[in-house]
Amino acid sequence: MNTGAGGGSPRPALVALLATLSMFGPLSMDLYLPSLPRLAQDLEVSEQTAQLTMSVCFVALGLGQLVYGPVSDRYGRRGPLLAATCGYVAMSAACALAPTAGALIVARTLQGLCGAGGVVIAMAIARDLASGAALARLLALLASITTLAPVVAPVVGGQLARIMDWRGIFWVLTAIGVAIVAAVLVVGVPEASTGAARREHPAHAARALATDPVFRSVLLVIAAASVGLFAYLNMSTFAFQTDLGASETQFSIAFATIAAAGLAGAQATRVAVTHTGPGRLFVAAVCVWAGVAVTLALVTRVGIGLPLIVAALALCQACLATMLATGPSLALGAHAPRAATAASLLGVAGTIPGPLLVPLFSRAHVSAASMTTAIAVAAATAALLALMLVAPALRRAAAAQAPASPDLAIEQER
């Protein structure tokens, strides 16, 4: 079994398993989104309470990674992953059987915590299998698959809602969880955490990450990127339909077009990173994203049509796909012994800042202008961080020629 960076390409079955684990978030959030109104009616609660069942799962998916990351580094990949996926099965069934909204909220929180284990351990396994440009290519491949989940899941959920109630949706999630547990057992999970890696105390791992300027700077850029991405996901429905007058069909086409651009960006990254290296490609993608986003925010205030806004957002999404493939490969490069802990911090940075900060841009009214402004502020912040922190840190790492982290240099090995 290939467990290292240099052992060739990962098996297709293992890549498919990692992609499925990475989709725990979209599956848990979006599959039952169309059933929220019926859920509120059946449990006799307000729409706000029904939406809370989404929010608690989202937050738990982010914060839960902080638990599973250190545990996986200390005790290996397979055991914690099986515990997380089995827990996901149990909590999905608990959601389906929940008698009250309060019980559902508790079960959804625990479901999110268990799902977090799959997300963070999947990225850690990717780091176990590859490093440098090879890791960026693997993450881009995973992104190519997982990018489809937020688009497909609501559509599938809508079709399922026609033949079953919200409880049935959770039984479907339970079945998906069972299939993933079976896949973990059949496909097998490589164990790369051994010896000194497992003896490292979580506090020592945290200290090593905190004192690495490359990890710190990439983490900050990903946090800024998460704000821009969440602004688009959270505000686009209102901005397109309410402000710009798009129909539901037009919105669906626009959303699918932008998602397809993200898929194309991930595929392009797999090719470009071989010739450019993840460091240079990461910084370039952040700067292009910022340039497009700031320009879009300015011209939106003047007034442009929906097609031009969609085209600009599609280019932004392609840049984000490149950033989210190359950024983690840089951040994880020197931290193979603590890959899951590092991945957990990257996961939190990519999950939590958006819900906390985006409401500041939409307190009064959600519009195309407020959405593009939020994206522009996030992108400009990310670009400043990339130019002032990431690029110098990568140059210093290259100059030092650290043997433990050759993949940190902007001039990467091809």
Quick tags:
about 425 residues, mainly alpha, Growth Hormone, Chain: A, 19 helices, disordered N terminus, disordered C terminus
Level-2 CATH architecture of the largest domain = Up-down Bundle
Count of discrete domains: 2
- Low-pLDDT segments, ≥5 res: 1-7, 406-414
> What overall form do the CA principal axes indicate?
globular
Find the CATH topology of the largest domain. Answer: Growth Hormone, Chain: A
What helical percentage do the residues reach?
over 70%
Structural classification: mainly alpha
Based on CA atoms alone, the radius of gyration comes out at 21 Å
Can you put this structure into words, describing what you see?
- There is one protein chain.
- With 414 residues, the chain is mostly helical.
- The chain has 2 domains: 188 residues, Growth Hormone, Chain: A (Up-down Bundle), CATH 1.20.1250; 201 residues, Growth Hormone, Chain: A (Up-down Bundle), CATH 1.20.1250.
- Helix 5 packs antiparallel against helix 17, helix 7 crosses helix 17 and helix 14 packs antiparallel against helix 15.
- The chain is globular, with a radius of gyration of 21 Å.
- It has 19 helices and no strands.
- The longest helix is centred in the last third of the chain and has 33 residues.
Secondary structure layout plus pairing:
Blueprint: H1 12-22, H2 24-30, H3 36-42, H4 47-63, H5 65-75, H6 78-97, H7 101-129, H8 132-146, H9 149-161, H10 166-187, H11 196-199, H12 202-210, H13 213-243, H14 248-276, H15 278-302, H16 306-332, H17 339-349, H18 353-357, H19 368-400
Helix pairs in contact: 1-7, 1-8, 1-10, 3-4, 4-7, 5-6, 5-7, 5-17, 6-7, 6-10, 7-17, 8-14, 8-16, 13-16, 13-17, 13-19, 14-15, 14-16, 15-16, 15-19
